[in-house]
Amino acid sequence: MNPISRYRDLRRAGVLGLNARNACYIMTRNQRRLYPLVDDKIQCKRMLQQRGIAVPVLLDSIRGQYEAGHLDKRLQQLDKFAIKPASGSGGDGIIVIVARRNQRWISAGGSAYSLDDIQFHVSGILNGMYSLGGQPDAAMFETLIEPAEVLKSIAPFGVPDIRVIVYRGIPVMAMMRVPTRMSGGRANLHQGAIGVGVDLVSGVTHAGVMQNHVVELHPDSGASINDFSIPDWPDLLAMAARCQQAIPLGYLGVDIVLDERHGPQVLELNARPGLAIQIANQCGLRKRLQRVDALGEPESMSLEERLACVAKIT
Amino acid sequence: MQMRHWMWLSLLLVVAGVALIIWRVEVYGYPLLPGAEDETWTVQARVRIDPEEGPVKLTLKLPDKTPGLARLREDFISRGFGLDVQDKPDQRSATWSIRRSGSSSTLYYRAQFYRDPENQAFAPVPAYPDVPRLDEPFATAMRSVTDRARQKSADIASFATAIIAEINASAPSEEISLFLNSPEYTGKKTEVAQTLLAAARIPSLQINGLLLVESERQSELTPWLAVHNEQQWLFFDPVTGDEMLPDNLLVWWLGDTPAVTARGAEITSLQWSVRRNLVTSLELAERRADEHDSGLAALSLKQLPLQAQSVYATLLLVPLGALVLVLMRNFIGLRAFGTFMPVLIALAFRETGLLAGLVLFGLVIAVGLILRMYLERLRLLLVPRLAAMVTIVVMLMLLISLFSAALEWEVGLSIGLFPMVILAMVIERMTIVWEERGPGDAMIESAGSAVITVLAYLVMGLDVVRHLVFVFPESLLVVLGLTIACGRYSGYRLTELIRFRELSISQ
Q: Which chain B residues have a beta carbon less than 8 Å from that of A212?
């Protein structure tokens, strides 16, 4: 590998690097005062709800250590839920509880949690174990997402989600994150989930990437991950674009899940979305971002106009 | 606009830093490289006197201006005597005086000189001398010698050369012999030359110099002749007539008067000596800057108390370590635990050495990780858990120190200088990465941390680097400028070239 020619090739392919993402897009397009709104998932959920964007219901939240003591009463009614740190990143500190047997909660991975275990995990969250810089955090209990049945063919287990990068209000790239056994049912690429490129206009999947290698079949089920048509694709794009209106971050990652009963819901927003989406789509981001910039002032367009632009910039 | 702004700022900082360094190197001779040494010479005049009755007053001529040499410092050692230094433009001198002096005493004058090619100052230009009024037959002799010399010469320099040659000829002419054999001029060839030059109204000075050559005990004075040719001083060897000035000839005093005059005492001995010293260039430059009392030039860490000096010698390296870190993270794309952890660990390694440091560090981390796994079972809250880890780390360090003391392995003792809080945080962070992202990620981050640590250690350990930041603290301006420039790098990181290889167009 010749680093200089590789560098030029990547440049020509319009690949966005971390330094360029930070310097040219995040620092110039994302106002710092908006970060807390997305970094705190509870606050973010509230903002999205105010805009009428569907989100998974917040069952309960705990901010003070003293509240953690009364956890048993709060959990009495709950059998299925996800515990999350409100300011967590990269999926760290999330426990998904799928059932209760006697006094034990069973996680998606099959482990049993006693009340003590859950209390310990919650106090770890409150102490900032998973938050940026170890700041005190809140623990949130969210309804469990039941992935839509149609997704089972491409994602046999775990909850897949769809990440859309929205730049200045216009969706520019999307991928589906499919959990695998290796990722422990989580939709995080660095833990071994498959990143599947999605055609932005049609919502049809093409080749996926797992641990930086191109894959065409799901490693656990053997089913093809190509040519899957994501249902309600235009609605998903509209939903992603509307998130930017709720929280006006110029460079935004929107994570959407498809729930069997409630349809598409925004799981969370990300002010610093990763760059692996380029590998999943086998396409650089930079040219699309530049085409959006060439539109002038896309922020002032109506939702319909913005969505009409999607076909133009891909 | 914004683009330009950072470029100008970065450029300004780098230029300012480099300019300050160059200025101090050029003007004061601060050494760019460590270990550079310069010669200095300590010259000494030692006068012994036997006092008579009553007050004693003794005057010693002092060296002033010598082309090519500069004085660093001078000392007068004279117990009980009052001292007065006269700074007259043509002749410096020191006067020692005492009202009553019982026994014989010894007075010293000591001065230190260094080479300074820029300094070409010499005595002020004298007035044209009058033609000496001599009795016959000296007057006639003088005229015929100058006439002959004038015929053989084209200008003042060659005239002086001709005169000196005639005086020093193996078979001197009648006229010269007349001078040399007269009681007034016996053994004073330089004075004969001066008389003959004055006959042509050429100003001249007799130099009483000291050759800066280290001698066992005593040095002899070397006479030299300075002739002014209406533009500048020319120097002549009074024996050979060559026009030159040895670069190691120190001009002590001018004229034919004695160096020391005493009243109320008898001079029993007068001795000259020269000693050559080697000082570090840094020391020399600092003394020079000190003499000139230039605030910015004398800006030196050497002015701080010793303890503060050693603290800053270390602190000044941190920005460089941080720059290494920036390069590794933003240009290479290595991942590491914590932002500045590698730099702090590298600083600690300076005490232990690299290999021993890595071994000790690895040991503490490995044992700490095992104990941390055990702590996990106790379900401690975060802050108490971290506090417990700090305690455990301190105990581990103490144990290692005790063991190495028993084994008489001295390096092990210096583990006490490791930043224990950082160690505890590394263990904590490593555990979390291990559990959340798997051992693979933990290994990648550990390896990244180790590489940055080693590189930062190597850079901060370079003698040149340590010397530069210590002697030229303004080099931090350069570091800051470079760091700002690095902060605006928006190209790919080296690891991204691998990460995004599938997207490369030529694929």
A: 499, 502
Residue type, B89: P
Q: How far is A94 from chain B (nearest CA, A)?
A: 10
Residues in B touching A209 (Cβ below 8 Å) = 502
Cβ-defined contact of B502 to A191 (cutoff 8 Å): no
A183 and A299 belong to one structural domain: yes
pLDDT tens figures, A272-305: 998 989 999 999 999 999 999 999 888 889 999 9
Residues A65, A123 within the same domain: yes
Q: Are residues A21 and A78 in the same domain?
A: no
| Chain B CB within 8 Å of residue A19 CB | yes
Tokens describing residue B41: 């010479």
| Identity of the residue in A15, A23, A124 whose CB atom sits nearest the CB atom of B500 | A15
Q: What are phi and psi of B271, to 5 degrees?
A: -125, 140
Select from A5, A11, A129 the Cβ nearest to the Cβ of B382. A129
The predicted pLDDT at position B310 comes to: 79
Q: pLDDT by residue (tens digit) across A217-242?
A: 888 888 888 899 999 999 999 999 99
Backbone angles phi, psi at A141, to 5 degrees: -110, 120
Q: Is B143 on the interface with A (CB under 8 A)?
A: no
Is the CB of B7 inside 8 Å of chain A's CB atoms?
Answer: no
Query: Of B417 and B252, which is predicted with more confidence?
Result: B252
Angle in degrees, CA B362, B365, B367, rounded to 5: 105
Is A20 an interface residue toward B (CB < 8 Å)?
yes
Q: Among A143, A178, A200, give the residue marking a domain's end.
A: A143
Q: For position A66, which CATH number holds?
A: 3.30.1490
User: Which pLDDT band holds residue B56 (cuts at 50, 70, 90)?
Assistant: confident
Tell me which residues of chain A have a pLDDT lower than 50: none
Q: Using an 8 Å Cβ cutoff, are B183 and B226 in contact?
A: no
Same structural domain, A176 and A309: yes
Residue of B nearest to A283 (CA): B503
pLDDT at B253 over 50: yes
Average pLDDT, chain B: 83
User: For residue A126, what is the nearest residue in chain B, using CA coordinates?
Assistant: B382
| Partner-chain contact B381 A123, CB within 8 Å | yes
pLDDT at B1 over 60: no
Distance CA A192, CA A180 (A): 7
Question: Which pair of structure tokens corresponds to residue B225?
Answer: 């002749």
Residue A279 touches partner B, C-beta closer than 8 Å: yes
* Gyration radius of chain B over CA positions: 36
Q: What percent of chain B has pLDDT over 90?
A: 12
What percentage of chain B carries pLDDT values higher than 70? Answer: 96
- A155 and A248 in a single domain? The answer is yes
Whole-number Å distance between alpha carbons of B436 and B251: 80
Decide: residue B86, CB within 10 A, 0-12 exposed, 13-18 middle, 19+ buried: exposed
Whether residues A248 and A302 share a domain: the answer is: yes
Give the minimum alpha-carbon distance from B437 to chain A in angstroms, rounded to a whole number. Answer: 6
Q: Give residue-wise pLDDT tens across range B272-297.
A: 888 887 777 777 777 777 666 666 65
Q: How far apart are CA B504 and CA B239, in angstroms?
A: 83
> Would you say residue B125 has pLDDT above 90?
no
Looking at the structure, do residues A164 and A138 belong to the same domain, yes or no? Answer: no
pTM of the model: 0.70
* Rounded Cα distance, B113 and B68, in Å: 10
Tell me, yes or no, whether A170 and A131 share the same domain. no
Q: Does residue B207 carry a pLDDT above 80?
A: yes
Range of the domain at A261: 3-53+147-313
Cα nearest neighbour of B441 on chain A: A190
